[in-house]
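quick one, 95 residues, struct below
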Amino acid sequence: MRCIIAGYPFNLTAREVQQAMSGVSPEPITGASVRIGRRVYPVKQVGATVTRQDRRDFSAGEVTRAMTKLGFTCYPASAVPSQAAAPAPGTAPAL
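---
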């Protein structure tokens, strides 16, 4: 699928996005997020990884639109998915 991010055209497929994000640990979610496989990532992290552009060069909305068109589930900043808020397996919850 062709999409424009930061003024540059990209031909992305869902499989390419999944491959790019495999093995990448999600950063803490502070804004909009996207579910890729079983993990939830900040959209800015996904955009930077997939496009290799600086995060300041594109908006979260641009990446959210592209990920939605590719079939991924996106969440607004106000709706952090429960899995993203849960501690990682094998870690003790913060007291």
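Residues 10 and 65 are 13 Å apart (CA to CA).
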